[in-house]
Amino acid sequence: MLKILDRYILRRFIGTFFFSISLMLCIFIVFDISEKLQDFVASNVPLRDIVFDHYLNFIPYYGNLFSPLFTFISVIFFTSKMAAKTEFVAILSSGTSFKRILRPYMIGATLITALSLVLNHFIIPKSNRIRIGFEDKYINNGYNTDERNIHKQIAPGTVLYMSDYDNFSNYANNISIEKIANNKQTGIMKADNMKWDSVDGTWNLQNVFERELIYVALDSVKPGMPKYIYREVHKFNPSKKIKIDFTPKDMIRFQSKIEVLPYFELRDFIVKEKLKGSSRIEFFEVEMYKRTAFPFATFILTIIGVSLSSRKVRGGVGIQIAVGLMLSCIYILFMHVSTTFATSGSELTPPIIAVWIPNILFSFVAFYLYKKAQQ
User: Fold this and answer.
1) Are the C-beta atoms of 76 and 321 separated by less than 8 Å?
2) 3-state helix, strand, coil in the chain (%, to 5)
3) Facing residues of 191 across strands?
4) pLDDT tens, position by position, 56-81
5) Are residues 8 and 135 in the same domain?
6) Is the dihedral of CA 337, 340, 346, 348 positive or negative?
């Protein structure tokens, strides 16, 4: 049951957090409008789309992105004000331990972390679909890949080749689908082009040439002679419909692909990509693990914030906020460095370890500052 002290600190914690992050989001929106206003006017973007498709999804994305930082700033701001008014001295003099004072802070951090986890895994990916779609339509003048000579492993032992691909029409030129088993080609299908049929989820191929290779092992093989003989079966069709494990979604922007998948879809997508032998598994795993690790930084930064600002110091709140911002920048730097190691293909740093390294290191910093604050 929450006591008067708990309610007092928790009310100030949550109130300061939402006030500061709302104020900062308003500033972000003003800067974003000033940056994109010319694009809005040039593209004749409807006001309804700007409000509901862009900014309604802009707010949760950036609010959640900066929530650990603003948790930290909020804690330092109102805690240092309490310390300046000697409220902490009065609380500690009453026999309340520093550990007990941390209780409402941890309750507030738990509420913010739980909200951030739900947003990260389920709500923001869905809102990103709308926000990114808006940006591609109006800001980026539509998105079209500039990749050429595209190779994709669409299934174990099956490789798709396209000379180019058009995202607007979902149309590709110079197609070949090669099948390989036991390091030997078992078949290949070539076509002049293919176009996506959204009605039945198939690809329509034109001028299709198919070659199937049937291997037969020889009973007795002399040295220097081949172990297999094979025969070829050729087919030609003016047009053909095929269904393969490749859709226009696989050609959207790489950043969009990982941002728009909720947790369960992202998890299943990673499993599918592993079966395909994708070279970008680490990027997807980093995204999945980061959605959990980043919100948990709220606990660590809350403890650091309380430990730094619970004492009255010369220089007031400004010094404590400056120290807090410095620590936050170091944390963000560690996050980028560690995830870069994971996505660079280094087996020494698995994605789950790389993502959690900043939290682990800063946990020791938090513990040190916590023990020092108790003295």
Assistant:
1) yes
2) 60, 20, 20
3) 175
4) 999 999 999 889 888 988 998 888 88
5) yes
6) positive
State how far the Cα of 92 lies from the Cα of 37, in Å rounded to an integer. Answer: 53
Query: What is the C-alpha separation between 9 and 146, in angstroms, rounded?
Result: 54
Q: How far apart are CA 289 and CA 353, in angstroms?
A: 9
State both tokens at 308. Answer: 């730094």
Q: What is the mean pLDDT of residues 15-39?
A: 93
User: Does one domain contain both 18 and 109?
Assistant: yes
Q: Is residue 163 domain-resident?
A: yes
Q: In what order do the strands lie in the sheet with 228-242?
A: 148-155, 158-166, 171-181, 184-197, 202-217, 228-242
128 shares its domain with 155: no
Looking at the 3D structure of the chain, how many domains does it have?
2
- My answer on whether 133 and 153 are in the same domain is no
165 and 116 both lie in a single domain: no
Residues 289 and 348 in one domain: yes
Listed residue (241, 245, 282) closest to 160, CA to CA: 245
Whole-number Å distance between alpha carbons of 59 and 46:
19
Where residue 319 falls (left for φ over 0; alpha for ψ -120 to 50; beta otherwise) is alpha
Same domain, 58 and 21: yes
Mind listing the pLDDT tens digit for each residue in 311-349? 776 666 677 777 777 887 788 788 778 877 777 766 667
Same domain, 47 and 99: yes
Short-list 65, 16, 28, 102, CA closest to 317: 16
DSSP 184-253: EEEEEEEEEEEEEETTTTEEEEEEEEEEEEEEEE-SS--TTS-SEEEEEEEEEEEEEEE--S--GGGGS-
- State the residue range of the domain holding 305: 4-140+281-374
Task: Please indicate, yes or no, if residue 153 is contained in any of the structural domains.
Answer: yes
Q: Does 318 reside within a domain? A: yes
